[in-house]
Each structure stands twice: as structure tokens, then as C-alpha cells.
Write a structure and sequence with these properties.
The chain has one domain: 2-enoyl-CoA Hydratase, Chain A, domain 1 (Alpha-Beta Complex), CATH 3.90.226.10. Helix content is 40%, strand content 20%. The chain contains 8 helices and 7 strands; from the N terminus they run H-H-H-H-E-E-E-H-E-H-E-H-E-E-H. Helix 5 packs parallel to helix 6 and helix 6 packs parallel to helix 7. It is globular. It starts with a helix and ends with a helix.
Amino acid sequence: MAEKEAVKNQKGPRPVAASVVKLRAAVDKAAAGGGPQRVEAQKARGKFTARERIHYLLDEGTFQELDLLVSTRATDFGLKDKDIPGDGVITGFGQINGREVCVYAQDFTVLGGSLGLAHAKKIAKVMDLAYENRVPVIGLLDSGGARIQEGVDSLDGYAEIFQRNVKCSGVIPQISVILGPCAGGAVYSPALTDYIFMVEGISQMFVTGPDVVKAATGRK
């Protein structure tokens, strides 16, 4: 009883649990993307960050993010020593002019927006959400393609997305906005969508990078 009274009579704010502090730090870190230097490099190219793109696209205050703290479980080729916040993609839902939409935005500041298995599963999940609720899905693409360090898992991730592109075709609008490089596997999904928007001087779409084409065929 005396212990309860002592707690009751304590003045000042309650101490924050260590787990809450740790969670807040993880959320802040994930929200910061690849960090200040990479964000500045993105700006120097005349590009917005992934979060800014979502902010400008959706009605203010409507975006609800999914899977913020998801990250790769791969550890090979130095991945275990890298910070990969959100696994390089932001997913969620919100409204445009009052209409519900699902959206994902690849974050070029995190490993060049490359697609690993967790990255792909986040996109697949938001596409499933769009399909189930019969709302448009919008992809804001800025990616160098497959995350080579994850090998076949990365390619499997692309297959998950392509399967959903086909499933959603003719059922819900699928919109791709190319906002940077879109190479290799990253270009196949937009090609399967209903609308593609590009930015002059910034957007690029190619099936395979120029260096690979030259190495394979001898042609530039």
C-alpha cells in the first residue's frame, strides 16, 4: 500500500521505458531514409525524396504507412553491416482528391532503391490491398533494379510483383511514375501497368544497363 502511495505522489513526467525509446529511435531512423548525405545527393540530381513525393501526391494528412520497420534478413556480401531502413521502399495508402489509393515509392537513397525480397513483399502487400479494396495502385519508381547481393531471392521478389500486375490487370487502375533510373527487373512491372508517366531529363527506362548490353553483344 505504501509503495502505491509513493508512486501516486511522484512529481514530474513518468520515465519512458527503454523499449519505447528504442522503438522511437528505429522509427526516426527508418523515416530518415539513407541519411543526410544521400538525401543531399538526391536533391543535387533535381529529385525529391521518396517521402516528399508521397507528401506532394496525396491529400495532406491522409497517408497511412505500412511496414515502416521491415528490412532485409539477408546477410551475405556485407548486407548485415549495412543500414537498410524500410528496405528501400515506402508503402501505404491515402487519398487523392478524396479518393482512396494505394501507393509505394522506392527510395533511391537506400541502396539505390534496389529491390530485395523484403522490398518486393512490401510492394506485393500493398498491391494485394489495392486489389481487395478495388482502388488504384500507384508506383513511384526510382530504382537501379535487382539487389544483386540477394541473388535469386531478389528475382523471386520481382516474380511476386509481376504476378500481381497480371492479376490486377483490368480490375484496378495501375499507374507507374518513373522518377529516376528504372533498369532491369524494375522496368518490367511498369511495362505491365496501364499508365506510365516520365520526367524529362530525369526518367530512364531500359531492360538492361548499357554496360551489360556492351559486354554481351559488343555493341554500344
